[in-house]
């Protein structure tokens, strides 16, 4: 089973006087140290300090997962010298690219969840507490208003939310803390 921890709880410019950062997540599973959506950050030190509380440095991170290509989610992607990147298109290692076909490892898989953006994906992580869906801005935060003014296609987004809610026990949204999915 994988272990998942929120390192930085995200916030939005509407709530935080112009400051915006995605929720930044650490997933660890049998030698894999993955950061999801390294965000914008006031400074890199904020994330370096959060990693150090977990006994990790930026050198230990071997995968960076990006839920979608909006700046507030990926601006800090270059912080991790040893990490492969994983996004909508697949694995990126150096300048080499290959499709991952939705498979990460035995405890992690990817579903396509477009609507907020065309390239939005959700990572499903099997943990001892059940399946956690890390869905980026498919859901901004718990009890967010249903209308997403940044969505490229609201109808498609609604279908993606339904897809996430069908499979998740817990949801990590794009800009807030984890919450239980009441199915
Ligand atoms: Zn966002």
Description:
By secondary structure, this protein is α+β, with helices and mostly antiparallel strands. The chain is built from 3 helices and 13 strands, in the order βββαβαβββββββαββ. Strand 6 and strand 7 form a beta hairpin. The mean pLDDT is 97.
* CATH architecture identity: 4-Layer Sandwich
Q: Low-confidence spans: pLDDT under 50, at least 5 residues?
A: none
What percent of residues adopt helix (DSSP H or I)? 10-25%
The radius of gyration is: 15 Å
Structural class, judged by helices and strands? alpha+beta
Order of strands in the sheet with most strands: 1-2-3-4-5-6-7
Q: Summarize the helix and strand pattern as letters.
A: EEEHEHEEEEEEEHEE
Mean pLDDT equals 97
CATH class value: Alpha Beta
SS field, number of helical segments: 3
Number of β-strand runs? 13
Distance between the termini: 22 Å
- Which topology does CATH recognise? Metallo-beta-lactamase, Chain A
Biggest sheet architecture: 7 strands, mixed
C-alpha geometry: globular
Distinct bound molecules: zinc ion
Q: What is the total number of structural domains?
A: 1
């Amino acid at each position: 089973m994988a272990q998942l921890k929120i390192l930085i709880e995200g916030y939005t410019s509407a709530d935080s006087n112009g400051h915006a950062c995605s929720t930044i997540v650490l997933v660890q599973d049998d030698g894999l140290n993955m950061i999801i959506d390294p965000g914008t950050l006031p400074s890199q030190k904020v994330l370096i300090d959060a990693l150090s509380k977990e006994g990790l440095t930026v050198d230990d991170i071997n995968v960076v997962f990006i839920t979608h290509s909006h700046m507030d989610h990926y601006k800090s992607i270059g912080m991790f010298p040893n990490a492969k990147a994983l996004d909508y298109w697949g694995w990126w290692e150096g300048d080499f690219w290959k499709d991952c076909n939705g498979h990460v490892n035995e405890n992690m898989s990817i579903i396509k969840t477009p609507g907020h953006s065309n390239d939005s994906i959700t990572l499903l992580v099997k943990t001892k507490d059940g399946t956690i869906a890390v869905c980026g801005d498919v859901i901004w935060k718990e009890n967010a208003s249903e209308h997403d003014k940044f969505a490229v296609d609201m109808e498609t987004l609604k279908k993606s939310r339904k897809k996430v809610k069908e499979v998740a026990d817990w949801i990590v949204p794009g800009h807030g803390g984890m919450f239980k999915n009441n199915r």
